[in-house]
Amino acid sequence: MSSSDIKETVKKRYTQIAEQPRAQNVSSCCGSGPCSGSEVEIFAENYSKLDGYVPEADLALGCGIPVDVAGIKEGNTVIDLGSGAGNDVFVARRLVGDKGRVIGVDMTEAMIKKAVQNREKLGYTNVEFRLGEIEDLPVGANVADVVVSNCVLNLVPDKGKAFAEILRVLKPGGHFSISDVVLEGELPPSIATDAAMYAGCIAGALQRSDYISTIWAAGFSDVEVKREKRIKLPDDVLAKFLGSDEIRELHESGAAIQSITVVANKPKSSGCGCGSCS
């Protein structure tokens, strides 16, 4: 699929998630149609014990808890990429306090609308949500102390450009904490190219080594994987794409889908990040 096709597929699916009753948003596997259903939780982590947790903002779309290891401090400015209904934003708001600021960015209008409704119920004046794409963030250079994102970068066609944008919006010496899906080994073509699997955070995922290399290439330092776990797709999900022999071959191949939470710093001497500095 082309980049525009991928974005439209993802936007359509996440609009459906934003507009359906919250009770149906269970185990959505990052929003993938074939992974949805209440019978199994594949990716989502439990946020309910975190300070600042807002149940109405939790659509179970993440694959980690990036704010938990983000080192967010009181007074920080935090940007959440792919902010959805505001789950990570509101937890970050608790950490930055009244003197800080949190900006959520999402490309789906229905998600922005839902997040704004949640913010208005809470009465926060230092939280905002902006419509925009991660490859072209609606944020100026050197704004954020911390950038967080939860199972969203894998949905972005041009990940190199996405990480370049993260570098641009971070202040020199700032850092990010991102939870995402990566691969080790090759998935069968029927999974790797399926539109639903793009929306489900799998088909768009990079090999783990390539993902880490992309971060280094963007200009970050001190890249470190803080948390990781292997994700096993149930055979009934795989059966929507593969025959029984192919499922067996996949299991025997050792190919793995992983959720990782990775952190990295923007060097203090990296310049303004606007692209025009010498």
Give a topology summary.
Elements (H helix, E strand, L loop, with lengths): L2 H17 L57 E5 L5 H10 L4 E6 L2 H14 L4 E5 L12 E7 L8 H11 E15 L4 H4 L2 H5 L8 H11 L2 E11 L3 H4 L5 H10 L2 E10 L13
Parallel strand pairs: 1-2, 1-4, 2-3, 4-5
Antiparallel strand pairs: 5-7, 6-7
Helix pairs in contact: 1-3, 4-7
Give the count of structural domains. Answer: 1
What summary fits the major beta sheet? 7 strands, mixed
Radius of gyration: 18 Å
Could you give the order of the helices and strands?
A: HEHEHEEHEHHHEHHE
Strand order of the largest sheet: 3-2-1-4-5-7-6
CATH class: Alpha Beta
The helicity comes to 25-40%
**What portion of the residues fall into strands of 2 or more residues?**
15-25%
Which characteristics define this entry?
278 residues, seven-stranded mixed sheet, 9 helices, 7 strands
What does this molecule look like?
The protein is 31% helix and 21% strand. The chain has 278 residues and is an alpha/beta fold. It has one domain (3-265): Rossmann fold (3-Layer(aba) Sandwich), CATH 3.40.50. It has a seven-stranded mixed sheet with strand order 3-2-1-4-5-7-6, sandwiched between helices. Strand 4 (144-150), helix 4 (159-169) and strand 5 (170-184) form a beta-alpha-beta unit. Helix 1 (3-19) runs parallel beside helix 3 (109-122) and helix 4 (159-169) crosses helix 7. It starts with a helix and ends in a 13-residue tail after the last strand.
